[in-house]
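In the previous chapter we treated chains in isolation. Here, by contrast, the input contains three separate entities that must be folded as one system, with a combined length of 1124 residues.
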Amino acid sequence: MELLSNAPSGPIESRWERHRFDMKLVNPANKRKYRVIVVGTGLAGGAGAATLGELGYNVLSFCYQDSPRRAHSIAAQGGINAAKNYQNDGDSVFRLFYDTVKGGDFRSRESNVYRLAQVSVDIIDQCVAQGVPFAREYGGLLANRSFGGAQVSRTFYARGQTGQQLLLGAYQALSRQIEAGSVKMRPRTEMLDVIVVDGVARGVVTRDLVSGKVEAHLADAVVLATGGYGNVFFLSTNAKGCNATAIWRAHRRGALFANPCYTQIHPTCIPPSGDYQSKLTLMSESLRNDGRVWVPKNADDCDKDPSAIAEKDRDYYLERIYPSFGNLVPRDIASRRAKMVCDEGRGVGPKVDGVRRGVYLDFRDAIKRLGQKVVAERYGNLFDMYERITGDNPYKAPMRIYPATHYTMGGLWVDYNLMSNVPGLFVAGEANFSDHGANRLGASALMQGLADGYYVLPYVLGNYLAQAKLEKVDDSHAEVKKTVKEVEARVAKLIASDGKRTPDSFHRELGNLIWENCGMARKKSDLESAIKRIPELREEFESNLLITGGGEELNQTLEKAGRIADFMELGELMCMDALARDESSGCHFREEHITAEGEAKRDDEHFMHVAAWEYTGDASKPTLHKEPLNYEFVKPSTRSYK
Amino acid sequence: MSKPMRITLNVWRQTGPKDPGQFERHELTDVDEHMSFLEMLDVLNEKLLGEGKDPIAFDHDCREGICGMCGIVINGRPHGPREATTTCQLHMRTFSDGDEITIEPWRANAFPVVKDLVVDRTSFDRVVQAGGYVSVRAGSPGDANEIPIPKKDADAAMDAAQCIGCGACVAACPNASAALFVGAKVSHLGLLPQGQAERFDRVRKMVAQMDLEGFGHCTNHFECMAACPKEISVDFIARMNRDMLSAMVKEKDTVPGRKPR
Amino acid sequence: MQKALTLYDTTIGKKALMAVTGVVLFGFVIAHMVGNLQVFLGPEQLNGYAKKLHDLGPLLWIARGILLASVVAHVVVAVQLVSRSVAARPVGYRQKKNTATSYAARTMRVSGPLLALFIIFHLAHFTVPGVPMGNYEHNARDVYANVVQAFSIPWVSGVYIAAQLLLGFHLYHGAWSLFQSLGLSHPRYDDKKRMAAQTLAMVVMFGNIAMPVAVLAGIVK
């Protein structure tokens, strides 16, 4: 299979503009005759559904939560990047493009990234017009901050709740379309399959989570904006309900899954406190601006009160190893080093499964230097949050932090038009693979979600619909009936399970397996053993699953089980992709490929491509396709933080 | 390791909207003080599942206090005893060994029980659909810095915009009123220059829908503010009242009301 | 075509009506108290004042009309709102802890109807038709004598004193919450507002209680 990116050529500055001109338009009077399904109501899905509705398309939107306002985009704290250059500090569209390509360690597509940087500017205009209360200066103009080690201040923010405010903006725009009748909203409804007729996506099969009713919904195009798959790890910063079922089911229907091994681990999360831990909470990376990371030099000191450990017995390992960047090294490095010191037995905090998973993030020196008041002004809300969760006071004792899975750069393969290799199936936001390469920069996830939703989907969908020759399909079509039957059978099979193990216990085991073997540092033997172990676990899941209750009611155990079944298959694919990518790049760190200084060593000669996996009918035997990547505008270089 | 706690729970169980429902008693003997309240319920649910029983249904998603999906009345207080804290961020160290805890769903006509502790809050969505937005098309707006907004207005708008739509205000209100929720949205948009064009139309439509959904009225007990995990101020209710009264005095217009589903 | 929404259709409009009629009634109880306190200045003063009021003629009837309309509106809307509130929570909590509200606010629904009953009692007693009780014999001309005679009966005084306590609470919550209902409150004046409401309510309550107490104590004879 040849993977065509369909990206335009020529000068990068005008590619998107020319492409827009070349695209076909749908006559305004005809738009309402087209039905578009949008699954997910986060930044990409919510903004996309609202914008398509505004244009006049007949939109049907789904979310599993009780309201579209709850999608997990809401939890993003830090901010959103845009190349406004309001600070006059040298930012530009090209610089944002450059930083994003470089940050992605040269594993993303230049054309897509440039478009993202271009429309970032419009996003801020749109959000402000919607009433998003971004932080402002005393003069009344928008405030910016520098984020994630960027050299320019291009991040817009709304206290520590930027994601919330942007999502509410999109939710309100969506609500307006629901009121206008152009969008029909179905909350508490989960998509369980894609209907593909003659190779073209024509609808989805959903289950109403309250009544249990399985239904087919037909359309002229389907958009999946269902977020990332970080919950494969069980413990992650994702919401509990976040799942990969939509994209995984689309994958099983033929959509290629790209770069599944690219998962981002965030270094500053609150560590697990026991084996009952259900999720991990992220704290803003800004804490590393003033906090110092350390662990005891001697493993014997690990259960001591930190204040009793003398200065000479503390190992400020980031400052020691990276003297110039110190505690501000990029996310992946900070995360990896934390895991290494914990694996050495020098972690702190309670033992969970026999290992102390935590390092100190100490504000003692910052408080001494700046005073408690200044520290409280900068980080007060984060300190409060930490105190609420752990019961410890970070003004008195150092915080404990540990890395956690945060974002997945991989996702369904899409071309420049955000369309997967299945015609009519579009994928937006974190659910696709397109813009972040092997590593995402801080404050870029919100940017991508809204770029896709407000500014890309409306054009590319129109272009597709204007040209697609779609035969009429209704519920009686054989393929529709077959897909519904398959979904019903899958649900029925889960309900009929009468084994001994709860869904959560399987999920925990899978998550731990992936974390240990396909987490921050990966090596061949680990990946191979995981690839061997996962099918066994899957087999046990098939035969020994415990579920109570029926299918025709709200059954949260059943929901979980269905999602875990898909995580099991995706987890295996992640390991296979990590094994096949025999290099280190971005967040994918292979212990076999490190520089003399212990950093990630890319292999551009063999791996400068997108790895797109095709489902073959057996989850353990996917086929790998490669989309080569070309860098015409940013010359690949090696990053160094020493 | 902290000493395990023994906790007795009186949990509301209700199979569906038509079931009258009843309390069920459960005992947990090994509750860790560092568990979140919802993790404690997870543990109970795993236990129930192991016994072949139906686990307790409760809403939750982000578990970091921002999505607004969780919400239980714990010992008579929405989201439990800790101020400015959602249920998911409440930890068991707030309780003591031997405590008996009563857990109930939000109780309001406009929030019918779906199952156990899960309620249907789509009435909130319909109130927003009635007018809780600025009508702006992607592509239309001018530059974001074209209209400077005084910092104090932007900050006040943000104070109101923080609402997570959890419904604790309704649950806490002796009248099951949604005044704080609606007041917060009306104020968030009404405080900003971008929201002025539709300001009075918006408040009329949202208030009309709020009434239609069957929420009670505000009698200024301010229980809503005390229960609000984001500590949203009742000043925004006064602001909504003011806007509503001037809207109705200024111009009469037909506000089409819709039937709540 | 759909009927246009009127202010009266909305809960906020109804609350505003409660507030406005409340202001009228509040004004009345203050004037009523000030007038009646003249009992301490002797029979001529009080009876003279009563005569002056009567001689106002049509003006008095206009005032009575406004008062009556306010009372009716206040009560009708209160009944509507309370029934709405009851319907808004058909299934109650087994356990509910309130943390912010005041005793006065919580008891509005009790103090309101009791005060309505008291007003009927009070009117029947001192105005129309002037129901005799114990030694009390109504005399339309001699207000002073009516007051002294009536309050000499301990249970009648008791009813009045109890009613004034209720009135005090009712006025307190009403006075400070009406600003919120009318959208006139501002956080900067919150404390002052609460204090002013408390003071006013107490002045009315103690002013009115002073009369039966003075009669019982033999200060006013």
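Chain A has a mean pLDDT of 96. Chains A and C do not touch (no CB pair under 8 Å). Compare these points with the single-chain example from earlier in the chapter.
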